C-alpha cells in the first residue's frame, strides 16, 4: 500500500506536492469515488483517476550498475555528459540513482523507481555499508590507518568509524591499495579522508553496496536485482527503524 499522492507523482503526471493539490481540490477518484484526504493509501489493485483519466501504475524495478569513471550519477546533465541512466535504454520505467558516486569514481550504484526504498537506503541513520578500494599515492603507516578507522576530522565534522585494510603496497612506486568500508555518504568522503592524512587518491572504486557486489559485471554492465535481494535490502533498513 502506498500513499495516493505518491502513486500519482510516480505516474509522471505531476510532482507529489501538486498531486496533493489535485486531491484536495477533488480532482482525484479511487475506484470511482472522489477522495480529498491526503492520508489515503491505495494498492496496486485500486483504480486511480485524475480528471477522469486513469493513471498508469509503474511496477517497481531495481538495478545494480557498474558505473564507469567519467559518468554522472544523475538522470541528466546540463553539460551534456554521460549519465547513469544512459546505460538503461531498454528500461521503460523512470529510474534514478540511489545516492551518488563521484564523476571520477567507478563501481556499484543502485537505480530504481522505488522512492521509499531509495530514501531509506540514503538516510544516514540506517548505516548501509559501502566498501571502496582506493589506490593512493604513498604508503600509510598502521597508525594512520587506525586514524581512518577510528574517525578523522574533516571540514564537515569527524567521520564515523570505518573498517580499513591495506591490501597491497608497492615500495618502489610508493603506492598502496587500501580497502575501506564506510556507512556515511558525505560528498567525496573517501577521497577527503585520505587527503586529510596527506595522501592523494589516484583511483577509487566502490566494490560493494551493502551485500551487493560487482561479481560478473564489467564496467558499464548492469543487472536487475533478484526478488530476494530487494527483500534483503528492505530487511536491512527495517532492522534499524
Overview of the structural elements:
This protein has 241 residues and is α+β, with helices and mostly antiparallel strands. The chain folds into three domains: 2-54, Structural Genomics Hypothetical 15.5 Kd Protein In mrcA-pckA Intergenic Region, Chain A; 62-125 and 212-238, Alpha-Beta Plaits (2-Layer Sandwich), CATH 3.30.70.580; 129-209, 2-Layer Sandwich (Alpha-Beta Plaits), CATH 3.30.70.1560. Helices cover 22% and strands 30% of the residues. Strands 7, 8, 9, 10, 13, 14, 15, 16 and 17 form a nine-stranded mixed β-sheet that branches. α1 crosses α2. The radius of gyration is 21 Å and the shape is elongated. The two termini are 19 Å apart. The mean pLDDT is 92. Keywords: Isomerase, RNA-binding.
List strands and helices in order, with pairings.
Layout: E1 2-3, H1 4-10, H2 16-24, E2 28-30, E3 33-34, E4 41-42, E5 48-50, E6 53-54, E7 62-67, E8 96-97, E9 106-112, H3 115-122, E10 130-137, H4 142-150, E11 153-154, E12 157-158, E13 163-170, E14 175-182, H5 189-196, E15 200-209, E16 212-213, E17 222-224, H6 227-238
Parallel strand pairs: 9-15
Antiparallel strand pairs: 1-4, 2-3, 2-5, 5-6, 7-9, 7-17, 8-9, 10-14, 10-15, 11-12, 13-14, 15-16
Compact overview of the structure:
This protein has 241 residues and is α+β, with helices and mostly antiparallel strands. The protein is built from six helices and 17 strands.
Q: SSE order, as H and E? A: EHHEEEEEEEEHEHEEEEHEEEH
Give the proportion of residues in helices. Answer: 10-25%
For the sheet with most strands, the description reads:
9 strands, mixed
Q: Can you tell me the CATH architecture of the largest domain? A: 2-Layer Sandwich
Integer-rounded radius of gyration = 21 Å
Q: Which structural class matches the secondary elements?
A: alpha+beta
- Domain count: the total is 3
CATH fold-level name of the largest domain: Alpha-Beta Plaits
Strand content: 25-35%
Figure out the total of helices.
Answer: 6
Under CATH at level 1, the class of the largest domain stands as: Alpha Beta
Mean pLDDT: 92
Number of strands: 17
Name of the CATH homologous superfamily of the largest domain: Pseudouridine synthase I, catalytic domain, N-terminal subdomain
Uncertain runs with pLDDT below 50, 5 residues or more?
A: none
Principal-axes geometry comes out as elongated
Give the N-to-C terminal Cα separation: 19 Å
Amino acid at each position: 500500500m502506498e500513499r495516493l499522492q505518491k502513486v500519482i507523482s510516480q505516474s509522471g503526471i505531476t510532482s507529489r506536492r501538486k498531486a496533493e493539490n489535485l486531491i484536495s481540490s477533488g480532482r482525484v477518484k479511487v475506484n470511482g469515488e472522489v477522495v480529498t484526504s491526503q492520508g489515503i493509501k491505495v494498492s496496486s489493485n485500486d483504480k486511480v483517476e485524475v480528471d477522469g483519466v486513469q493513471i498508469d501504475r509503474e511496477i517497481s524495478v531495481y538495478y545494480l550498475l557498474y558505473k564507469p569513471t567519467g559518468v554522472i550519477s544523475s538522470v541528466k546533465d546540463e553539460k551534456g555528459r554521460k549519465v547513469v541512466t544512459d546505460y538503461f535504454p531498454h528500461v521503460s520505467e523512470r529510474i534514478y540513482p540511489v545516492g551518488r558516486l563521484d564523476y571520477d569514481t567507478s563501481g556499484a550504484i543502485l537505480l530504481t523507481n522505488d522512492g521509499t526504498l531509495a530514501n531509506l537506503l540514503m538516510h544516514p541513520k540506517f548505516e548501509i555499508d559501502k566498501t571502496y578500494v582506493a589506490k593512493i599515492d604513498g604508503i600509510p603507516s598502521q597508525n594512520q590507518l587506525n586514524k581512518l578507522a577510528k574517525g578523522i576530522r574533516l571540514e564537515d565534522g569527524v567521520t564515523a568509524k570505518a573498517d580499513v585494510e591495506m591490501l597491497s603496497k608497492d615500495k618502489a612506486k610508493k603506492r598502496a591499495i587500501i580497502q575501506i568500508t564506510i556507512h556515511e555518504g558525505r560528498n567525496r568522503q573517501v577521497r577527503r579522508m585520505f587527503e586529510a592524512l596527506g595522501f592523494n587518491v589516484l583511483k577509487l572504486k566502490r566494490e560493494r553496496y551493502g551485500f551487493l557486489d560487482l561479481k560478473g559485471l564489467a564496467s558499464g554492465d548492469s543487472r536487475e536485482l533478484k526478488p530476494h535481494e530487494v527483500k534483503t535490502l528492505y530487511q536491512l533498513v527495517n532492522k534499524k527503524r
